[in-house]
Each structure stands twice: as C-alpha cells, then as structure tokens.
Amino acid sequence: MDLKAKIHEWKKLRLQLDELQSAIDVIEDTIKAEMTSLGVHELVVDIFKVRWTPVTTTRIDTKALKEELPDIATRYSKTTESRRFTIS
Questions:
Q1: What is the pLDDT of residue 1?
Q2: What is the rounded (10 degree) CA torsion for 53, 54, 60, 64?
Q3: Which of 1, 5, 15, 83 fits a 20 to 30 Å CA distance from 58?
Q4: Of all residues in the chain, what percent are helix, strand and coil, respectively (each to 5)?
Q5: What is the spatial distance between Cα 49 and Cα 40, in angstroms, rounded to a whole number?
Q6: Residue 33 in contact with residue 27, Cβ under 8 Å?
Q7: Per DSSP, what are the bridge partners of residue 42?
Q8: The predicted structure's pLDDT at residue 71
Q9: Cα–Cα distance between 48 and 46 in angstroms, integer?
C-alpha cells in the first residue's frame, strides 16, 4: 500500500467535498431566501417537498450548572474518550 498516494488522494477528495459542500450551501441559502420571501415553511416543487421549519430544543446550561452547583455538575458529568482523524 502506498500511503503517500493515499494521503494525496484523500486531500484531493477532501477539497472536492469542501467545494461541493460550499455549492450545496449556496443553493440551500437561495431556497431558504425564497421561502422567507414567500413567508412559508414548506413548499412543494415538482415531486419534492421542501421544509425549513423552526425547531426548539432545551438543553442544560452546563456552564451555569458548574458555577451554581459544582458538586452536582461533577457528580453527573461523564468523561468519554474518542479518537480524531486529521491530515494537515
């Protein structure tokens, strides 16, 4: 296995992925702007149903919890380990 060639291929593909993601983001922003101007959260275009809906989530404010109740924050904190893959 030629590791050098694989890394070069990975970098090339990663660049293509980033370029594709940028193009997708531009198209999504255009669609969202159109939906905003129409004042809708859902559109049917051809055979596609497009939704851009608000989502509400509730999360614990860990910073405030650590400041106000550090013992409880420590007791219910969970440490995990993962591995990060990078090529630079």
A1: 74
A2: 140
A3: 83
A4: 55, 10, 35
A5: 12
A6: no
A7: 51
A8: 96
A9: 6
Q: State the Cα–Cα distance between residues 52 and 32, nearest whole angstrom.
A: 7
What tokens does 33 get? 């702007």
How high is the pLDDT of residue 22?
98
Gap between the Cα atoms of 23 and 82, Å rounded: 31
Burial (CB count within 10 angstroms: exposed 0-12, middle 13-18, buried 19+), residue 63: exposed
- Per-residue pLDDT at 87: 92
pLDDT of residue 75: 95
Structure tokens at 80: 């995990």
Strand partners, 50: 43
With a pLDDT cut of 70, the percent of the chain lying above it is 100
44 Cβ neighbours under 8 A, 6+ residues apart: 50
The sign of the torsion formed by the CA atoms of 23, 29, 32, 38 equals negative
**What are the structure tokens assigned to 30, written together?**
């255009």
